[in-house]
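Re: [ENG-882] Designed sequences occasionally contain unexpected residues at chain ends

Forwarding the minimal case from QA. Structure tokens:
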């Protein structure tokens, strides 16, 4: 994107629009012209006359009565298209429709009629038009009990409330808000042909699995075991759950074991990728003096200076290295090497350590053995 663009976003206070507006602001060279239900006809017309591109995201999902579908989905779409058509150069338009547009109910019929209005605008003016039949969209800034069941599940879990009632086996087809916004942004300046388009990836799951996954995120703040949340649906659900936390819940405590040597904290544990811990040592203090048969560890010094001593318990070979904060040096301890860590600085030593397995008191795989026999 080189030239500056004026982008109209209708339904500007809604879930999808709020995420889109944030991303548009990050792009630079974009003036976002928001339209909300509080804007009168003159303001709408002014915005649309200046538009280089239109994202029509306004609509009704759960109005107080069925007439709201006609008012917000059909009449508003007609107004938007009629006013945009009066522009000297009618802008391309993207309409966020729904997979439910194929249904013969008030909501589906209203979305289908709105699609026809947008398509007619494109054919009449020659402007490109794109119709997105979205499935259940979820993500940050969604509204519980309104946008999707995922929002309700995450909202309740973040507050210690029970999940919504319903059949746990009910299937869900979900699409993540970041994937929707990526697709929307790609359309600005695109030469894609007008018509329907899909947005994905679509995650096939069920309500029970979503509830179980979100519940594991909540429990992980207490244990502190973190389930896999680095990719796919788990990554997206984890981000959504965290977005529903109250600010006073951002900070929480985990157990700290303290003695004369310093402190030891197990910060997080994972299901299959070990755990991350942090320890402190007073000046002159040595920690460790043991080896592992299978467990491996990686140390990084984040404050102070540490001397790492190692000895192969089979061959007697020895190794020593010093690591200082700020150097970014990682010291990795292979199995079968006795090791210790000594604070050789003048201030408290702080180390972060990753172990490839979660500590099991019943099978600790930690054998006392001094580095210097």
């Amino acid at each position: 994107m080189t030239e500056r663009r004026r982008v109209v976003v209708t339904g500007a206070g809604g879930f999808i629009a709020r995420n889109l507006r944030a991303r548009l602001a990050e792009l630079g060279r974009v003036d976002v012209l928001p339209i909300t239900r509080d804007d009168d006809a003159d303001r709408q017309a002014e915005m649309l006359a200046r538009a280089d591109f239109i994202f029509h995201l306004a609509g009704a999902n759960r109005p107080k009565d069925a007439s709201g579908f006609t008012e917000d989905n059909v009449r508003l779409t007609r107004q938007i298209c009629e006013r945009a058509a009066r522009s000297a150069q009618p802008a391309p338009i993207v309409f966020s429709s729904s997979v439910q547009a194929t249904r013969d109910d008030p909501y589906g019929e209203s979305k289908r009629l709105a699609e026809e209005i947008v398509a007619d605008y494109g054919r009449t003016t020659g402007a490109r038009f794109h119709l997105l039949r979205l499935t259940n969209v979820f993500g940050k800034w969604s509204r519980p009990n309104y946008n999707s069941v995922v929002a309700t599940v995450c909202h309740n879990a973040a507050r210690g409330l029970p999940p919504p009632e319903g059949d746990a086996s009910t299937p869900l087809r979900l699409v993540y808000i970041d994937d929707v916004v990526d697709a929307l942004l790609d359309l600005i300046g695109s030469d894609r042909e007008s018509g329907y388009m899909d947005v994905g990836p679509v995650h096939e799951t069920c309500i029970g699995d979503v509830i179980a996954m979100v519940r594991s995120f909540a429990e992980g703040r207490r244990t502190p075991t973190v389930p896999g949340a680095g990719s796919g649906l788990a990554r997206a659900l984890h981000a959504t759950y965290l977005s529903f936390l109250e600010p006073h819940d951002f900070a929480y405590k985990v157990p700290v074991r303290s003695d004369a040597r310093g402190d030891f904290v197990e910060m997080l544990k994972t299901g299959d990728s070990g755990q991350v811990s942090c320890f402190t040592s007073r000046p002159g203090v040595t920690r460790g003096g043991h080896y592992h048969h299978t467990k491996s560890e990686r140390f990084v010094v984040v404050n102070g200076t540490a001397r790492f001593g190692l000895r192969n318990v089979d061959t007697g070979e020895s190794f020593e290295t010093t690591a200082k904060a700020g150097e970014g040096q990682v010291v990795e301890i292979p199995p079968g090497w006795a090791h210790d860590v000594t604070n050789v600085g003048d201030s408290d030593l702080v180390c972060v350590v990753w172990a490839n397995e979660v500590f099991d008191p019943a099978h600790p795989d930690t054998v006392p053995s001094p580095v210097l026999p």
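QA comment: On inspection the terminal residues look reasonable. The mean pLDDT is 93. Proposing we downgrade this to a documentation issue.
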